[in-house]
Amino acid sequence: MADDVLRVIPLGGLGEVGKNMTVYEIGDEVIIVDAGMAFPRDEHLGVDVILPDFGYLRDKRVRAVVLTHAHEDHVGALPFLMREIRVQEIWATRLTLGLVKSKLDEHGLLRAAELREAEPEKPPITLGPFKLEFIRMAHSIPDAVGIAIETKAGLVFHSGDWKLDHTPVDGLRTDVGRLATLGNRGVDLLLGDSTNAERPGFTRSERVVGEAFRQIIPVRRGRILVSSFASNIHRMQQAIDVGVDCGRKVVVVGRSMRRNMNVARNLGYVEVPEDVLVKPADLDGVPVSEQLIICTGSQGEPLSALTRIAYNDHPAVKVERGDTVIISARPVPGNELRVHDAINRLTKNGAEVLHEENADVHVSGHARAEELRTLLSLLRPKAVMPIHGEYRMQAAHARLAQDAGVPASSIVIAENGDVVELSRDGVRIADHIEAGVTYVDGLGVGDISDVALRDRRHMSEDGVLIVVTTLSDGAAAAPELITRGFAESDELLAEMRQEAHEIVRELLAEDIREVKLLQEHIHDGLGQLVYDRTHRRPMILPVVVEV
What we know:
Blueprint: E1 6-12, E2 21-26, E3 29-33, E4 49-52, E5 61-66, H1 72-75, H2 78-84, E6 87-92, H3 94-106, E7 114-117, E8 125-127, E9 130-136, E10 145-151, E11 154-158, H4 176-185, E12 189-193, H5 207-216, E13 224-227, H6 233-245, E14 249-253, H7 255-266, E15 291-295, H8 305-310, E16 324-327, H9 336-348, E17 352-354, H10 369-379, E18 384-387, H11 391-403, E19 418-423, E20 426-432, E21 437-441, E22 444-445, H12 450-462, E23 464-472, E24 475-476, E25 480-484, H13 490-509, H14 515-534, E26 539-546
Parallel strand pairs: 3-5, 5-6, 6-7, 11-12, 12-18, 13-15, 13-16, 14-15, 16-17, 23-26
Antiparallel strand pairs: 1-2, 1-19, 2-3, 4-21, 8-9, 9-10, 10-11, 19-20, 21-22, 23-24, 23-25
């Protein structure tokens, strides 16, 4: 394959929010930017997480995985990828690498690839035909970068997640100067974050949340709980700073929150005085007016700390009248109902719950329309490919690019699996590969079929009916019925039992004794009866036992 044609293949993150993963390929050389996961929706019953489909990479030699930042939708699939695909190197900034190391260690994969630290202020690195520069971008987690990828086919800028934020908590702003320099060199293709493309104006600075904490925390007398994403280290730091100033002790609750806090403290990204930190088990010895609890669960996840606290199921933390709960995150699309349930339960327990709708306790980490316009004017790209967003967000980003003077023929609204080719002739969708999803269900990865999901949905809607028929010496005893999740009356149960008994007696009279045939006739006969009486179709499982 020619070394002057760059193939860009998104395996996730387009037409959706989550599981961001993009393959860059020249000849036989491959690098991957990000390897993220997505969380299941309600219809994915029993599924824990959703990964991109790695099938395309199985016979490839992956030179490196390059990470833009440490959010789960960009790094969560990395351990699963490394179990299946041979990866030589992983490149990431210091904090991202620290958080990823801890994740890989849990999976026993620390030595599976060489871990290399990417430094935004340093000269470019060369990986085969790719020359990479890391450009600092402000986001809702420290150490986020965009990646400039220079090849013989042209110069690409992959923005990662970003916003402008002129007053970030750590003082490290989006590097507008480097972006302008890049624009002067000539950017052939921009792959840009589309999450907030539909929202006008500018995203507010992270410091807005710190100011809100300064207004809220000092005047409260009860416990204060702050819930956010475990990776939002600046948010944690701002809450801790205010808490310490008010003489409160800090308790970190939730496994991922504790792990991230330890990594960030060890690397110097978070400062907490040692005498302020208290273990959850020691909370009883701290007056409620001195407790600041930082916890996971801002998305209403069923087993998270905040949800367990809301339902009085947490071993160390409870909420009562006079307490304040700050939910410092926006629900990811699909999680709204779970978050509302948690808010209702917390309010019922007597707490005042502050969230994005009624206080300035959250700002987005993603650029809005005016910031996207700014990036387009700094880079002046010849072609634009909106990524990281649902289709409507990609379309809004495409309109902004057209307003900025990018010709419509050079704006690519791609889908997962599209093969986008960049050459000196421009950019085009040249092909499409299979790019489905992989379900992680308990310990199984990718082994859950659509049939299993369909059956789970079926059982959750209409219930299960098990019919046990015993055959002895050529005669059938009256069948037993076991029901779960199926609203039935005694009359209907008696009618079903009678029907099943009749079906079996008739079959035996005709000398039909094959178990599979008996089961099929019971299934069809009872299915029709139940539907006629209830208009429901429970899952019917006939069991025939010969004794």
